[in-house]
Amino acid sequence: QVQLVESGGGLVQPGGSLRLSCAASGSFFSINVMGWYRQAPGKERELVATITSGGTTTYADSVKGRFTISRDNAKNTVYLQMSFLEPEDTAVYYCNAKGLRRSSLPLTSYDAWGQGTQVTVSS
């Protein structure tokens, strides 16, 4: 019942910056955690960054100091600001959201995924 739509992907040169956005819509009571995952060709999907509704963040070691995750709770949107991009960052980036369903007794959780957006870092 939760839909996620990513935007902001594209082609960027090494050392450049890009900002990804993911907007959530549909039926839900809360979005407890939002995050970004990525999958490069020939590799497993990996966690990039997460952020809770209270603002607590986590990052993969490979992106610490370069990427910043943030969210606008009023807009149900999560962002990923990517700076100092490297060719190794090339991947399909997926938005994820976990929270509670609306009007559910007892309360139940959901785990929603977006369709993904391509990020290519190349000169």
What does this protein look like?
This protein has strands spanning 2-7, 10-12, 18-26, 30-39, 46-52, 57-59, 67-72, 77-82, 91-100, 109-113, 117-121. The chain has 123 residues and is mainly beta. The strands form two sheets. Strands 2, 4, 5, 6, 9, 10 and 11 form a seven-stranded mixed beta sheet that branches. A hairpin with an 8-residue loop joins strand 9 (91-100) and strand 10 (109-113). It is elongated, with a radius of gyration of 15 Å.
Instruction: Please give the share of residues in helix.
Output: under 10%
- Beta-strand level of the residues, as a percent range? over 45%
Radius of gyration: 15 Å
Beta strands, count:
11
Uncertain ranges: none
Largest sheet: 7 strands, mixed
Oligomer: single chain
Number of helices: 0
Write the element-wise H/E pattern from the N-terminal end onward. EEEEEEEEEEE
Shape: elongated
What value does the average pLDDT take? 95
User: Span from first to last CA?
Assistant: 40 Å
Going by helix content, strand content and strand pairing, the class is mainly beta
Describe the secondary structure blueprint for this structure.
Layout (H helix, E strand, L loop, with lengths): L1 E6 L2 E3 L5 E9 L3 E10 L6 E7 L4 E3 L7 E6 L4 E6 L8 E10 L8 E5 L3 E5 L2
Parallel strand pairs: 2-11
Antiparallel strand pairs: 1-3, 3-8, 4-5, 4-9, 5-6, 7-8, 9-10, 9-11
From the structure above, extract its key features.
123 residues, mainly beta, single chain, 11 strands, elongated
